[in-house]
Every structure is written in C-alpha cells, then in structure tokens.
Description:
The structure holds two protein chains of two kinds. By secondary structure, chain A is an alpha+beta fold. Chain A is built from ten helices and 16 strands. Chain A starts with a helix and ends with a strand. Chain B is an alpha+beta fold. Chain B folds into two domains: about 5-245, PmbA/TldD fold, CATH 3.30.2290; about 255-485, no CATH class. Helices cover about 20% and strands about 35% of the residues of chain B. Chain B has twelve helices and 22 strands. Chain B has helices at about 5-10, 15-25, 85-95, 105-110, 145-160, 230-240, 245-250, 265-280, 280-285, 345-350, 385-390, 440-445; strands spanning about 35-50, 50-70, 75-80, 165-185, 190-205, 210-220, 255-260, 305-310, 330-335, 335-340, 360, 370, 375, 395-405, 410-425, 425-430, 435-440, 445-450, 455, 460-465, 470-475, 480-485. In chain B, the strands form four sheets. In chain B, strands 8, 9, 10, 13, 19, 20 and 21 form a seven-stranded mixed sheet that branches. Chains A and B meet through strand 2, strand 3, helix 2, strand 4 and strand 6 of A and strand 2, strand 3, helix 3, helix 5 and strand 4 of B.
Amino acid sequence: MLTEQEIALARASMAFALENGAQKVRVTLNKSLMELFGMLNGELDKVTHALDRSMQVSLFVDGRFGSFSSNRLEEEGLKSFLLDAIDTVRTLEPDPARNLPDPARTVKDALSGQELGLYDPAYEGLTSEKRREFAFFSSVWARKAELEKGFTVISEEGEYSDSLFDSVVMDSNGLYARHTESSFEIGYEVTVEDPDGNRYASYWWDATPRLQDILPSLKTCSGKAVERAAAQIGPKDHPGGKCTVVVDSECASKFLTPVLNALGGYAVQQKNSFLLDKAGQQVFPERLTILDCPRSQGETGSRLYDSEGVATREFPIIDKGVITRYFINTYIAGKTGMEPTIEDATRPKVMPFGGCKTREDLIRKVGSGILITGFNGGNSNTSTGDFSYGIEGFAFEDGRITHPVREMLVTGNFIDLWNNLVATADDARRCMSKLIPTLAFANIDCNA
Amino acid sequence: MIHPKQHYLDLFQVGESQLDTLVAEALRHGGDYCDLFFENTTYGNLTLRDGIVNAAGRHIDYGVGIRVLCGEKTGYAYAESTALPDMLASARAAAAIADGTSAFYEHSVQADANGSRLVGRRFRGEPNPAADRYPVRIHWRSTDAATLIPFLQKLESAVQARDNRIVKIIATLVWQVTDVLMYNSLKELKYETRPMGMVSATAIFQQDGKIENKSVSRSFRTGVEMLTDGLVTEMADEVVKGIDDRFAARRPKGGQMPVVMVAGASGILLHEAMGHAFEADFNRKGTSIFSDKMGQRICAEGITIVDDGTLKGNRGALNFDDEGVPAQKTRMVEDGILTSYLHDRISARHYGVSPTGNGRRESFRYAPIPRMRATYMESGNARPEDIIASVPKGIYVDEFSNGQVKIGEGDFTFFVKSGFLIENGHLTAPVKDINIIGNGPQALRDIVAVGNDLVIDPGAWTCGKEQSAPVSCGIPTVLIGSLTVGGE
C-alpha cells in the first residue's frame, strides 16, 4: 500500500537529516486504511473511512537525541521540519547511551512485508456493499425475541471493520524492513434488562488477519454478547475469603501484563519494578513457562522486528519459573551496561499444563471457587506488585457455575499469585497478541 | 487565541467557496447535515530523566474530517491533505451513509420557529477574540526548547531538595497547540487556536528496602507563562506531601462503611461514576442508568452537578465545541433533580433540545460525541472538619487512581492510592492500595453531606471514552453514607 514515491521520500528525508547535522537517523513510515460499518439496534448507524500516513524520525545529533513525527508528507515542508528538529535536539544535554541498534541485531528477513503471511489479498476484493452486508448480517436485533428468555435486549451496538497496515523502517546503519498486515474485526456490546428493571451489559469480539476466518464470528458475535450479558442476571453476594479463582482467557491478560511490564528495561532502570534484581532467579513455580512466539505464520501479533528494527526470535521469557532476562532496548542497554534484547515481549504464550482443554474442564478440575469473566477498575503497584481489582463473574461449586457474583474484589501480590497457579486450560484466543489460556489460582483473597 | 478568519483559510489552503463545494458533494446522496473540521496540531515534549533533559520531540498532525448525518446515522471520513481532490474523495466516502431518502436538516430547523422545542440550533457569527477563554501571552510554537528546559531543571532540583529518600525523578513538559476551522451545512463558520500546557513530575522514594512513587501534574489552556517559580514550588511540595504516611500505610479491614472524599481530585469519581451517565449518547441508546430519569429526583436537595466549559484557562475550557456550538455551563443536576443531559447535535436533535456544547472529538480523525468538559459538584454548606467529625468509623480518601465504571449498570470500582481511617470522628492510621466499590446512582443518593470547599483539580486529566479528550474535575468534601471498601 505504501507507494515507491512515499518510500523514496522517507529515504530522502533520512539523507537530508544526515546532510544537515544528524550523525545517525532512523525513519519509520506508516500507512493504514480502515473501513468501518457500525450498527445500532439493527440499523446502520455509522460508516467510517480512514486513511492515515505518518513519518517518524529519530535523530541522533552531537550525542543528543530527539524523536519527531509529521503526517504532512510534502518534501519541502519536511525539510523545514527536519531543520527545526535538528536545532531542537542541539539544545538538549548529551546522552551517550542513545544509539541505533548494532546492525548485527537488526532484521534481515523482512523485505517484502508479507513474509509472515499476515496480509490477505482477499482484502482488495472487498466492496462497500459487501462490508455493509457483513454488518447487517452480524446483527441479531431483528430476531432478538428468539433470544429473550426472561429478559429484554434493550440495546445492541456493534461494528464490522477491516484495515490494511503497511510500515517501513530504515536507518542510517543500513536497516530496511517492512511489515504489512490486514485485519478483519467484528465487535458487539449489548445491554439487557431483567423484569425488575436491572440492566446488565457485556460484549464480544473477534479479529483475524484473514477474511475467511472472521466469517463464522459475524454470525455468532452479537448472540455471544447477549448470552454473556444475560448470564449476569440475578447476582448474589458471595462471602469471599481465600478462594480458588479461575480467570477466563478473555481477560487473563490483566494478571500477565503487569508481570511483563515489570520485566521491561525502563521499569528496571528506574527501579520501579517488583521484579528488580530477579533475572536468572527462580521466582515463579516450575510449572510456569512463558514463551515469546513472534514468528508464527499467519497469527495475530506476529512480528519479525521491533520498533528499532531488531529481529525477533522465539525464546522463553520465563523458563520453568526462572526469569530468563529483562527486555532491554538499545537505550537502556547503553544506560545500564546490560545485554540488549528486543524491546518488549511480542507474542507471549503461557504454556498450558494440567491436562484441561476448556474453561469448563478447568472448573470441573478445581471444584469450587470464583470464575472471573471481567475486571472493573482497581490498580496495581508497579514497585511492590500488590494489586486490587474489582471483578465480575460467577461462583461455582462442585465443578458447576451456580450464580453471578457482585461487588467483589481480588487482592494480592503478583509474585504470590503466579506461585499459586495450579492449572490452565488450553483455550487461548487467537485474536489476541498475548496467548493466555484460562488460568486457575488457589488461595486468592476475594473480598465481598 | 483567535486569529482573523483569513489566517485559518490560508493555513488550510481552502477558500470559502470550496467549503460550500465540499458540503454540497457530501450531501449529494441526501444526507441532511454535514460539517467539516480542519485541524492543524503541533505537539512538543521535553523529558528530564536521570538528572538531564535528554529527550525532546515535536509532532505535526494535519487534516480535515468530514461528517454527514442522515437522521441519527453518521458517515465519517477524513483526509490528511487539504488538496481539493483528496477532500472531495473524503466527502464522497462520508456521503455513503445516506440512502437518498432523508429530508434536509435545514427544513427541520425551519420548523423550529413554529413552536417546536428545536430552538437555538444555529450559532452564526464570527468568533469573538474579546471573549476568548484561552489567554496566551507567550506562544508555545515560537518558544524554543532551550527556553523551556530550565523550568524542568528547576522542578527537579526543587523536588530533590525536599526529600533525601528520592532515588529517581522524571519530569515532563508537554504542550499542544491546535488550529481549528469548522464549517457546516447551516453555513456556520468557526475558527480558533487552542493552547494546552502540561507539566508532570514523578518521584520514586526508597526507604528500608521499600519503594513508593508519587506523581503530580498541572495542565492549563494557556501559554508558556504558566511555567512560573510558583508552579515549581507548588508541584514540588505536592509530590512529597504525605509520603511518610504512604510508607506507613496498610490495607485496612474491608466492609461496608461511610467514605469521605477529599475536595478536588476526588471529583474523578464524580466524572466516571456519574458524569458519563449524563452523556446523552448513552441515554439516546438506552444504555445509561439515567435514561428514564429526566425531571426526577436522583439525589438529595442541595446537590448541584455541573459541566462547565466557561472556566477561563481551565483544561476543560472551550470557546465552542468541535461542532461549533458555544460552550456553556450546563447544570445536569439542580438541587437533586436531573435537569439536563450533555448533548452534541445528534443527541440534541433526538431529544428536541438545544445542544449544550459538549460535542467533542480527539482530532479530525474522529466524529464528535458528547463529552464532559470541567465537571464538578457545587459547594454545599458543611464544614469539612464537621463532616469528618460526624463519622464514627469509615475511610477518608485522599487520592484516587484508576477508576472504572459500567455505564449501563452504574457499577464502579476505584483504587485508593492513599487515605486514612476515620475513627470516632478523627483521621487516624494511613491506608493505601484499597478499592472502593459501588453503584454511581446509588452513591449519589447516599451522599449525606456536601462541604463548602469546592476545589477544581488542576491536574492533567484525560477522559478515554472511545477517544481521548482533556477534561478537569472537582468536588467539595463529600460524605457518602455507605460504600463497599475492599481491604484485608
């Protein structure tokens, strides 16, 4: 989708910056096209067409650094913008840690942008009429009476969208890499009302790089949102206490993301990480392994390189409970003397264990507790790892869901939490870039 | 800041006749209203980390958004170029929402004069520099980084000097200046330049092997003149305030209990748990808990809640919203009665009322939706110390952080970063890292005392409802009779 002319402009901008005072330069050129058809209560409510372009320029001038961007991709205007940018960088204090990545670390196998199979040529064949048809087809509003069993569907809002993203990154050390990706998405939010006038809302969504793979979800997405909303009717208080907690794969990233953030070089360098000085140590149980799987063909979230152009590779982030390394970009490596890596986890995968396939299998295995299907507010302390989150979900006993719960919290510390991981299902959602199955933890504080 | 009209026409390389051409093209298939939103934004940022100002950036975002309304349906497209062919292509894409059957918006406006409630929909007239709510003496765009850097250095020194337990300081200065020009099929033309300055400081403290962090921010719609020595002192004092209590704080025992919220930043709970439910799009779609409560009592007499775009220099201030509707002070609740939702043009039309100037958007990439501006509860009569003294056992909330609300149900959860136990009418042990859970409308009904000390918080609050928008919030000291406090 990026044109040769646009890529040539990026090259010319890099050359211009080098000719006018910059010693090193990285240029990233992004372009995306998005079409959206939104539905409200069975009628077309919104049509959106969006075409975006932007150029980001990282400048290394006399030992100083600045990052600049513009979406006005006109040659003369960019020259003036770059001259101002170079002047701005010169006013900063020198920072010897700033540098481009070593060329030995940068990606060499991302030339066409389509190496990972994330671009579906079927995108080109889609018309406005077809997209409109997808949107109408996905709504269940016209047949909501068939779904209303003891409740009323009072609002259904959703959208079908697709997009094409194309990106090129190049630097003055010879890096050139491209990533092209299509995406097809469906999402619905539904509000239902019980006979007493109490309202319950929920959602469902799916996304995939291939058109063919989204088609089944067009049919089921809104109905699934209705089902999830209606399941919350009739919540009861739960006594709380130390409980076994099962966290649905849809929302389990709430517990993993803070751990990955704590492994980030920036948090470690700023001493704002509860995993400070823990690299190489057995912090988590032996049954926990988290792999980074960035190069899986055709899978959402796969990338051959990070934003610096550093090549990704498959490796264990946590290997049988041992933290293997922090994520150290070129800057943090320069600041700390640590060995550089890719800048962040790309497509982390919590490896399933315990023999359960589905969420239901897992609930049967652990017997009784609380099933968390969503979070509502709360926070975690990045320095200590303490957390407290509002939850929504269900109580279950003897392997069967009994009733929805209300006004509950889970509290604890992330290190303790993951040490209490007792089993997982094998049901990670492929539409997410973090592959986390439904998880079961023992002895978690649940407050009512 | 409001420049002459020609400044904006030149900036966007567009003539007035072209504006009409674009509107005509966008309405060619029968849409009944169209607006054009031209934007040119410059962002600048400086970061001080590890004792030096070592990162800077400047970013340009330029384009035009074209919206077509067909009844309450929206067609939206944008271009990052204001060349006429690119804008015409966007106009045609937005026009796709229309099916050729709609009546003209202009006709429904004509009907207003004949007694319907659709009054005040037209907002013609030139923007008035004398009434500008964004006072600027020193312009961000023409101030170079070298002039701004000493402010961050002073701020860092002032923070460091206040507490020897500080091991890291991060200070940032971010500014944004946005030129906008709007035109619509009612032939309303509006233009202005919106400034915004934001400063933040985060300190990381270490004591006996424990780490705590605290942040403070300030944001105003003004120019560089906001960067005063007084601001340095104010922020440095605030970032270290209460850190001894933070280290000493524990999670208390949880349960149902009264909660006193400190004046000022606690207004974020008002914004999240109640304010969103007043936004008319949630009500139009039937998803707000207040959608059938207009004109009814929803809380005690004496409680008045407003959303105010008229506070000069405030982060939520506007001369007019992103649909060209003049900003106003909108009372959603007067003496406990629900009196108004917050409207954009679509919802105002749906409800048959005038828009309230709440149609806002993150940028030209987004269609406007009803958004808050500066939302606060007006002062009551109680003295804050008397409110605390009236509580035998409860929680005093000093600082909230993450909050989340489910608009449909009104359920909210807020994280308390710091506060105190209240025992026998006195603040006693410090508490932290607890959640408060409740239901917005119920909590509103359970307010039993409102202090006489309204504070509108000057922090850099950003609302994230589908799109980002700068807002501010405020509240006097308030006692809620019963909320669920999650503790040990």
